Amino acid sequence: MMNDKRMLHDNKDVCKQEKFEKNSTLDKKLGATNNKQGWFTPVRLSSFDKKLGTTGILLIVVVYIIAFMLESTPDINTSNEAADALKSGFSTSLSLGTVVLKKDTTIQRKDYVITHSSNQRESKIWVWDYAAEDGDYVQIIVNGHPIGDAFFIRNKPAEFTVPSVGSVQIKGVRDGGGGITYAVKYELNGVTYFNNAPINNFNTYTLSNNFD
Predict the structure, then answer these.
(1) Is residue 105 within a helix (H) or strand (E), and if so which, with residue range?
(2) Per residue in 99-148, pLDDT tens?
(3) Widest pairwise Cα distance in the chain
(4) What is residue 201's three-state secondary structure?
């Protein structure tokens, strides 16, 4: 009887040992699987690593800001053509979007009569700030009616479609400083006009063709 009890006890110990070994093997397999799936115990970074990471982020932000400033800074045309355009108020040779000044300088405001030979009912105009983007706003009015809200004029030209015959007015809405200076190019004659819009008043461009 005693021998039977010892054998039974020994068998229990063997079973416990086998169960322990199986659990250990299973744990190892699960651990390996977790590692393969990326389930790792979080690593605590040192203060040096944290500072290094913060410095890297700041460096990236600074580089991005510098790149943005360089990209948004226009080339200033200082040629004799640009100087003549500012004196006369118009140019037939300067390209669309030409910037001729670093900051606004008040020039004489003018109205123009544009006579052309086009038989098209509509045509395009482009409006932009030929100096600093300093917060000037204008509004386009065609035959007495606004064709949109007032907008911030930038160095990049904004395009509009207007009738080939009639009145186009550019109204000064907000002066960012130094006067509301702008350029407008007409597709009808290929001429760019450099002008100064008074606040709450207009520059008028009267369009007519040779068939009238």
Answers:
(1) none
(2) 999 888 878 899 999 999 999 999 999 999 999 999 999 999 999 999 99
(3) 131
(4) coil
Asked if 31 and 102 sit in the same domain, the reply is: no
Q: Do strands 192-197 and 180-186 pair parallel, antiparallel, or not at all (unpaired)? A: antiparallel
Boundary of a domain, candidates 24, 41, 72: 72
Q: Are residues 126 and 203 in the same domain?
A: yes
Range of the domain at 170: 80-209
State which H helix or E strand residue 58 sits in: helix 47-72
Number of residues written out for the chain: 212
- CB count within 10 Å of CB 42 equals 5
Q: Are both 63 and 84 inside the same structural domain?
A: no
Q: Nearest 5 degrees, angle CA 199-CA 205-CA 207? A: 160
